[in-house]
Amino acid sequence: MLFHIFTGAAKLAYTVLALSDTGPYLACCSSLPDYTITVWNWESGAQICCHPQAEEDITALAFSPVNWQQICAANLKSLTVWNIERSKDFHMMKPSVIDLPATDGSIVEQEAIPSHIPTGKLTYHGPQMPTSAIAGLSGDRTDTFVPQKRMKQRLCPSAICWSASSQLYVGCREGFLLLVNPETLLVSVLYTSHDEGVPSDGSGALAMQEGSFQSLALHNNGVFATGTGRIYRHKPGLTDKVVKVLDVLCGDFVAAAPLYTDSNICVSVRESGELQLWSLDAGLCIASISLQTNVTSLVCCPVAQYVAVGTVTGHVLFVDLTRKEQPRLVHRVHLYHVPVDHLVFDQGGHFLITGASDHHIFVLNARPSKAFEIIGYTEGMGATVSLSTQYQQERKQVKILVLSDNGKEERKEKEQKEGNILLLFSVSVQEITGPVNCVDPRGCLRKDVLHSCAYETPHRLSSCVLGTKKVFAYCQQKKALQRFQLPEIAGKRSNTQEAVPLSPEKEVEGHPLGPASVHLSPHQNWLASIGRDGLLRICDISTMERYVQMQCHSCWLGGARSVFFTPDSQTLITTGLQDGSLVCTRLRLKMGGSGKANTATQYGLSMLASFEAIMASENPALSGMADWELQAQSPLASVLPHTGEVSETDQVIADINDKDESNTSLPSVTPSNATWLDDKLDAIQVMMRENESLLDMEKLEQQEFNLDVEEQKKLQAEGEQEVTRVRGEIELENLAKCYLSEVLKKECWDCMQVKEKAIKAFHSEYEVKNYPMKERTVMELEELHRVETIRENEQDDSNKEGFDSKAPVETEEEEEEKGHESESLTLAGSLSSQFGGSNPYLYSQFDLHTREQKTSQITLLQDVIHKVKTTFNTEFEAVYKQKEQEISRVRDKNRRITEIMAELGLQENLWEPTLTDNERPEKALIVSESEIKVEKYLTPEQRQREEEQRKEEEQRRLAAKGDNIRERALDNMMGGVLELKKEDILRTEVPQPEFMTKPELQWTDEERRSFKEYEKKAKELKEEQEKYRKTLEAEMKKLQTSIRDATQAFDETLSKLFEKKVKSEMVIYQEELKMANLTYSLLIEEEILNREKDLNYKLESTRALKNKIEEALINHRDNVEAFRETYDNAVAEDKLLDKGFRKEFSDVPGHVVDQLYKLYKRRPRVQRMRTQTDSTSPFKERPMSSRAAAEGLSQMMKAMEELDATENMPEDLDPAVWERFCLARRAKVESEQQVKIKALILAEMQAFLQKRTDEDENARMEIKNLTDELNGLREQKTRFCSDIMVQILIKQGQVEVETGDFVADYSDSQLIHRSVVEDLNSTIRVLGEQKIASMIKCKDFRKGIIQQEWEHERMRMQMEDLNNKARDIQMLHVSQELQEYLSETDHDNRMSKQVSALEKTITLQEKTQRKKIENCKKLMKHLNRQTALKKEKIAALDLQLANMEVTVAERRNIYEAIAMEENQKSEVDERYQDILQKKKLVELAKAQAEEVTVLRVEVERMRMKTFPLLAQLK
Do residues 217 and 224 touch, judged by C-beta distance below 8 A? Predict the structure, then answer.
């Protein structure tokens, strides 16, 4: 039945509702667009009050159980307590927002708003402004603005609960439990998950997981919280621990895998670390164990009953399942610092291979008898995406396929892991005997043990699995299932090996929604795949086109996560990604596929049979391993079976092995075929090596060894396509680089009016750079012209005023003018005028008061900086040209020096100065041929053109070498010149006469005179040559000296330019400092304006609010006054009824009137008893006072019927008078009740009026404070604009004051001349040297004293040593042997006697030893005989012992059975006695409770007799 329809202000819908426990009230919150909270009276259907709220959807709403006028509303960001204030029929809602702590539990401190009331001090940085004013905000945003650095993420409320004491418990998603006082709005943290550092012990207390507070409930035993499938209990005040009272084992599955020993059992693990064993037939959980950590992967061992589990902390856990009802953790190993993403066993059960997001792949021994030892590791080519193995039983070889992500391509989704690098590792089981023989000192597997090959796929893969010579993978990019054929690659992989490109052999359509993962059946013929669409697909690996599928999981919850085949390949187990379900699917094959199903089953049975011997030896070793002690065990790790979430689906599907005859398929390669193929490949490689050693005529072509020419052509075509693709990518990359270079050249070179370059000194490391300058824009020039025009007008006006107001004054003296000039430089704050940066329009630093003046000054200062840079650049260009001229001169002189050195025959390297790259920056834009290190690529046309040019050059050179008669004659007769030059003197020689070849005795006189003339000419030529040589050497030295002097002079010029650059930098920094100060002052003024605007806005808002409060206050005050008159009238009427009682019964005798007056004052006690009864429940709210009075009136009228009965009528009273008396008394009672109701309503209205009065007073004080703040801010603004910062130039000094802050405080410092400090320091230095000299003297004297003491001590110790030696000589004991030695003169004779005596002793000892050895041998024979007898007796005793053990075991079983029956009987008796005792105690408690109730009633009755009733409320 429809009771009421509530029509509110919500335009769309209400998001949350709440009912009050203490009255007919309903609260509701609406969503967008209005976002309001409304309270209704659901009995009358009237709306009590309504208030807008923040634009956030409310997630939790609750009334206070003891006060319906308090409502708590919570959303994901805030917590608000709404207080309902009442004045008669008027209601008003007031929100109180709770300031929640940060996510780390700390209190978020609010920014302290600085006060602007004047204090007489002005800081260096100006007035302090709040952060909102600095950010340029005003209005309502200033109250909520928080800077990024101070921003902290707050707790997110997820559940609320009121307590009996009207306090509020708040549960947060981060695992915090808060207690909020709604009156004071104080928040205290009762519990946080960070308080529990480690999981608890078996008592059940443990750290709560994040998100555990999804709902709260208050109970006498504490606060109960639910979430993440668990229920926790927390007792505030008693303990800070949280106790888990229930765990329903919810959560998402990570993986599920079947046991190899029992195909009906599977093992699953959840993300929270809960490992469970399931029965696939019954769908029940057999046992479970909590691993107390978050897990990421799971795999079952094929040769032993245990599972390996990977965790997020990088550990691998080994769980023993030999006893299925009691799984236990037996071993743990830490391998990574990242989660263990992949675990896989090889099919032979030899190794456990692990993979993670880093590059390391670990190999562990899978046998429990080896204690799961770590064999070694290897490094992959990226993060591991997928991992699979293939065991070749004939070759005893394990192949490992790793899908890696090299990280070169960025993924859009970080959760989606993909890779395109396939690493194939080959490990021989026989070669790996242990970690000692197969790893290097770092633990890495050696390359001769671990063979590897690398492949690269064209697209990124999300999952892959290794088959026999094939790889099956899923490509999310193409949404296809792919099959790859692995080629054989000789050699081993190194760090620099390139991956071999791998193309898919076959590709079929994949899942509609990916990514997907693939899994191969144990018999290697069926391929299963699952994806995010929740579909399970199964296909035959030979065709892959026909498949069967089934919807196992919902695509809306992420689809499926993992899939596994049972050993017989007839059952598949899948787990969901987010649905928390585990699905078991059985295959039912048609008649056509029954044979292949039998093949799969037989393969599984044969595999189990081959592992029986290994299991028989490994399972006992596994059972014998000790339990690994967990930090805590789950209280629900129970061995009792309970209902799980496994859904078994038997699906009738088509024959998955039906092949499409129209498609060709390659036959599967058996292990024997693979071995034959490997042998053939080895033979071909041997023939190829032999072919390389043959002669060229006997060699075969390389292509003749190809077995598959079509495949070769296909690979060549693919290679050409790849080359074309790479060439296109390179061209695009070059185009992008060219575009980038053009952009950089345009922005950094072309737009520069003055380009940056440097001048480097010839003989030093000096390097001076110019100022790179951009051309000023038109806007900047217009702004400068505008400012200069304004300043020119201002200066004209000031000069005119000065001329009109001042009388002509005599000029001052020149010295005073110079002093004024230096003073103006000091007050100007910079030396820009001395470096070409003067500007007559600059303001004085003391005249900058307005914002426009400061802005104009900044523009003028920028122009000054531009002029300083331009002036320096002009000088720089002059020096640069000078260097170019000097280099040209040096080259000319070096050319002359080279000629001189050639004439003198000297071989020296000359210094040849050149311009560096910094001096010629345009060289960076030009690429020379020498910079290109690679061979230039030429097109065929360019090659032909170059060949033709080369041939023409060769012909021209040969033609130039032809026979030229004139040149040959000139060379033969005059050495190739027509006249002899002076430079040829050094090469000139006097021709020797021909007769000098004859002996000197045969010379004639004529020949002798010719010889003398020859000697004279030779001497003269030699003197002339020497003179010319000295002239050349002097000229060469002069040239070298001139070069050195010129370059040194240039270096001095450059050093002066460097000093000029330093001073120019100083001037520029001075101007920039003035600009920075002006900019800072402008920012401060803008902050002051923002703050002033904000204060004005708040002042206007507060005034508007105060006006509203005043209007409401006047209305409420009038209502209170009007109701007070009504209350006074009711009180007066009640008094008149009391006074007119005797007048009304004047016809009755006086003694009867007195008796009736006593009855007139008598009242029933039902109201107080009812209040006492209601107060016994702490959760029951006491009603509103006026409401209680109204209900009390009806109760009172009912109770008056007992007093109006005739039994209470006085004797001898007329019944008519009694009826009249009863009516009068009822009228009096009704009047009293009305007075009480009106008194309560009046008190409520007065309290409401007082609150409004307080609000009005608070608003008035707020207005006063805002006005004071605004006036103070204006005063600070005026003072800040007046007290401007001035930059003054002073001589460089030294600061002797310690500076703690960035800006030092010099208020207690004094400025003195530097010479005073230097004189004082020199005096201190002289006194210090004197003190040091005296200290050295004292030290030397003390050293002499110590040396004398040491010498004295040495002599004293020598004296003691000599005394001891003398005493030893006197006390020496002379023995007989010593006397014989001293008396014996022939010591050799004595030594021979001693030797002979020792030889006799040795002979005697040898005889004694032989006798003892014979005795020992006899004793050993005797003992051996006794040992044989004892063994026979022990064997007989062993037989007797076995029989006795059987007897003892039978007797023990009989005794235990008897003892068990006796124990059960005794337990039954004890239980029965406990039940009887409990029943007696319960009955006794009930009796005592009844007695207490009776006594309480009696006490109340006696108290009512003792104290009179109040007639009315005063």
Answer: yes
- Cβ–Cβ under 8 Å, residues 101 and 94: no
- Alpha-carbon Rg for the chain in angstroms: 55
Distant-in-sequence contacts of 638-643, Cβ < 8 A, 24+ apart: 638/287, 638/288, 639/286, 639/287, 639/325, 639/326, 641/279, 641/282, 641/284, 641/285, 641/286, 641/287, 642/284, 642/285, 643/283, 643/284, 643/285
| Distance between CA atoms of residues 884 and 682, nearest Å | 72
Confidence at 238, pLDDT banded by 50, 70, 90: low
Decide which of 772 and 1380 is more confident. 772
687 contacts: CB under 8 Å, gap ≥ 6: 705
Q: Long-range contacts for 1060-1065 (Cβ within 8 Å, ≥24 apart)?
A: 1060/835, 1060/872, 1060/875, 1061/768, 1061/769, 1061/872, 1063/831, 1063/835, 1064/835, 1064/868, 1064/869, 1064/871, 1064/872
Q: Using an 8 Å Cβ cutoff, are 129 and 115 in contact?
A: no
980-1016 as b/e, with b when 16 or more CB fall inside 10 Å? eeeeeeeeeeeeeeebeeeeeeebeeeeeebbeeeee
- Those residues whose C-beta lies under 8 Å from the C-beta of residue 1445, and which sit 6 or more positions away, are none
pLDDT at 1299 over 60: yes
Q: At 1273, is the secondary structure helix, strand, or coil? A: helix
Q: Which residues contact 1314 (CB under 8 A, 6 or more apart)?
A: 1293, 1294
* pLDDT (tens digit per residue) in 21-71: 888 889 999 888 888 899 988 888 788 888 888 878 888 999 998 888 899
Q: Say what the pLDDT of residue 996 is.
A: 77
φ, ψ for residue 664, nearest 5 deg: -85, 150
pTM here is 0.57
pLDDT digits (tens, 9 = 90+) for 1312-1321: 777 888 888 8
Residues linked to residue 41 through DSSP beta bridges, in sequence order:
25, 46
- The DSSP bridge pattern shows strands 450-461 and 500-501 to be parallel
Alpha-carbon gap, residue 340 to 355, rounded angstroms: 6
Band (pLDDT 50/70/90 cuts) for residue 1051 is: very high
Q: Is 244 helix (H, G, I), strand (E, B) or coil?
A: strand
Cβ contacts of 835 within 8 Å, gap of 6 or more: 868, 871, 872, 1060, 1063, 1064, 1067
1328-1362 tens-digit pLDDT: 999 999 999 999 999 999 999 999 999 999 999 99
